[in-house]
Structures
1.
Amino acid sequence: MNEKKAFIRSVGRFVPERRLTNQDLEKMVDTTDEWIFTRTGIRERRILEPGLGNSYMACRAARECLERAGVEAGEIDAIIVGTVTPDMLFPSTACLVQSALEAKRAWGFDLSAGCSGFIFSLVNGAQMIESGRHEKVLVIGSDVMSTIVDYEDRNTCVLFGDAAGAVLLEPCPEPGYGILDYIHRIDGAGGEYLHMKAGGSRRPASMETVQNKEHFVYQEGRQVFKHAVTEMAGVSVEIMKRNGLEGKDIAFFVPHQANLRIIGASAERMGIESSKVVINVDRFANTTAATIPLCLYDVTVEEKRVKKSDYVVLSAFGAGFTWGSVLLRWWE
Ligand code: UT7
């Protein structure tokens, strides 16, 4: 087995200033703070100033991440951006970030996996390090969901927010630490429940697609909810089991932040007590690929709660369907 694991050397984030509260939404669509909070756990979300785009947020998060590590952009070998809301279809957001940061040596790409975008990107980045060919990989989860959400549709507009999170991966100096294991899965049959109808090659943008509001998130919430609970918990339990760990051994469970009820059900099946579950859905809502790095930022930078040797489980479920779980043993 390859002993050269990757570890998360530093974390950065960007959250836009503007807050959109549940009370604000009450004035926009037929909803209530009570409905939103009891069904999802969300109180407010952040909204990016129009026109700035994904790469603006991704760069802000990346810069903070690099500053915290004391690493220059020119030292980065690769940049992976998990997103479903790139600045444009091409060039990739990774290219735009590379240029803005002046990361002259880096190559990179965008990775589309919905709300699993960050954990899928993280594992790709970790494998680049494990290959021995890369020393510094920047992994970013960034989404401007406000640009693809219909603020006249109460089913979806209350759920999402904008944000970016970034981590820097490096080879872990000590064996037995870092990104130890992962289980990632996809099931394209789930696509019908969560997708964007137009804007791709099958149904390019036209007057008709715009009039029909086909460039917004389409979600059948109940279906997604059902699968999310089963699958997120399933892979999280599986990864613990196959590494000989139980709920009591896990210091932090960092789940994708879509719905407090999905998070609670997963933690319960994993046997993880609530104090170890990282939550920020109340403050930022569902920021798609950014939720997990934002949570990592909370527990590492803001609260400084994570210690060396802590086992941390990351887990997500999203459009595709895509889902997965990552086991880390913290090294710093
Ligand atoms: O991150 C990517 C993956 N996405 C997810 O994990 C999301 C998973 N799904 C969910 O989190 C939940 O399904 C939602 C939060 C989206 C919805 O919660 P729910 O408990 O599944 O509600 P529902 O969709 O079954 O709707 C219940 C009722 C409906 O009314 P009727 O048909 O019972 O009369 C909806 O029309 O709630 C109504 N409703 C609302 N009412 C007030 C839907 N949205 C709203 C709203 N305010 N914003």
2.
Amino acid sequence: MNSWVRYSEDSDFSIYNIPFGIFSYNSSSPRIASMIGDQVIDLKAVAETGIFDKLNIDNSVWESNYLNAFIALGKEITNSVRLILQKELCNEDSILKTTDVFIPVQEVRLHMPVKVGDYTDFYSSIEHATNLGKLFRDPENALLPNWKHLPVGYHGRASSIVVSGTNIYRPKGQQKPADSDPIYGPCKLLDFELEMAYIIGKNSNLGDPISTKDADNYIFGKVLFNDWSARDIQKWEYVPLGPFLGKNFASSISPWVVTLEALEPFKVDGPVQEPEVLPYLQYDGTSNIDINLQVLIQPEGQEENIVSESNFKYMYWNMRQQLAHHTVNGCNVKVGDMMASGTISGKDEKSYGSMLEISQGGKKTLTLKDGTERKFINDNDYVILRGYAQKEGIRVGFGEVKTKVLAAK
Ligand code: CA
């Protein structure tokens, strides 16, 4: 495919991508957009040219605060919108060439792409689970007995999921120093978690499990996901019911939802699962995706520092298995629900997806280009996640999620 829109070779938003998001411009209300190169495509303006007429989409769908109503039209419609856009952006005689549908991305504001109903966080990287098991439990038996039999997860908090560019405050809470009673104050061990999340694209019925075979029909697309963690608050509170205030103060996502269809060419086999999993978790076909991931720390006014380079293909449990497991008891899912992967670590230490692992629980120090040191995240640091898939000259990426940490209120 060759588009008449010019963009650089290393753009995440090539003609092969065509993601969906929500933007506003000047004083206009939020509406649905796509993106090519560094141009935002106003889909309400595109719809007015008539190129989507045969799909019979209600005009009100384009002028929404969230993608939910658009996603709920179903993949038959949303995939057609993407394919029609690709065709027009390659057609030298397209009506889009003569209309006012493009706006440079630096002139717009990007919003939360979906209204998140429910948020679930998995724990599906064997390297991450092993690293944490070694740090906090038994180096010889790092994985708990259930880990290779089911994709471990918990229900998170949807209200505090925010889009890239939204500052977060260092959380305050209870911590338990080793040598004193519990104290209350600003978290001292603030951390990122390098994750990706998928967005549910179709409602299921309460009582009806989704099979691994049918899972792709329920997955609309993916975003980058930084699952902020207050390690000291979490350590004291999590027994026996799991993550709570150490996790629910914020998670940050990238603004463009890259469709599962755009990621199809980058599918690869996942790790061999041994022991064999129960029948409801078995699957056919390639189910992992080769997506290069990066975490950077940028102190205020300073250069960016790469602190981790990982890959989504390392995941032990894939999205199909996660969704099959999530619903096997009859739990239903809804359009806009968000399912995060869990921290994505690789085998070598340059690919660890959290400061907890990079600093070995606070034992090792990272020196940044400006000479300052980190074991965890400081106030006024920016944390940036980037990700893209690339194969045979085709690049499909996510852009970034960039968040500034402000001092505790
Ligand atoms: Ca997490």
